[in-house]
Amino acid sequence: MNVSLMQMIAALVMVGIATGLFFAYRTYLATQSERRMRQMLESVGLDPAIAASGEIPTIMQEVRQRCRSCNSEDVCERWLKGDKEDPNDFCPNAKVFEMLNKHSEAA
Question: In angstroms, rounded to a whole number, what is the distance separating the alpha carbons of residues 15 and 72?
Fold first, then answer.
């Protein structure tokens, strides 16, 4: 085997590893976002099973998207642990959760 072929194989292996790490990290972020979203649902008095139910798929899809793109992950984690006593105004889904809570109480 010549050196150029070995270098090309090494480069392809490194690209494959980098791609695998990228997708593993994205999966990790999505999993953590889903966990926070379910905990937030429970914290505001909603059943976390609503996230998996087919009753309001469009709303939950938007909630998930907002949660995944949220920049307040640290504040959210502290709030969910009970370290912050402020209302969850930092949450981009706070108004949606409030609306869903009112809807579920009325039903």
Answer: 32
Q: How many CB atoms lie within 10 A of CB 53?
A: 10
pLDDT digits (tens, 9 = 90+) for 28-52: 999 999 999 999 988 888 888 877 7
For residues 67 and 78, is the Cβ–Cβ distance under 8 A?
no
What global pTM score does this model have? 0.74
Q: What are the residue ranges of helices labelled H in 1-107?
A: 3-43, 57-68, 73-81, 94-106
Q: Does an H or E element contain 48, and which?
A: none
In the DSSP assignment, the letter for residue 106 is H
41 burial via Cβ count (<10 Å: 0-12, 13-18, 19+): buried
Q: Residue 59 belongs to what H/E stretch?
A: helix 57-68
Angle at CA 30, nearest 5°, toward 75 and 81?
A: 30
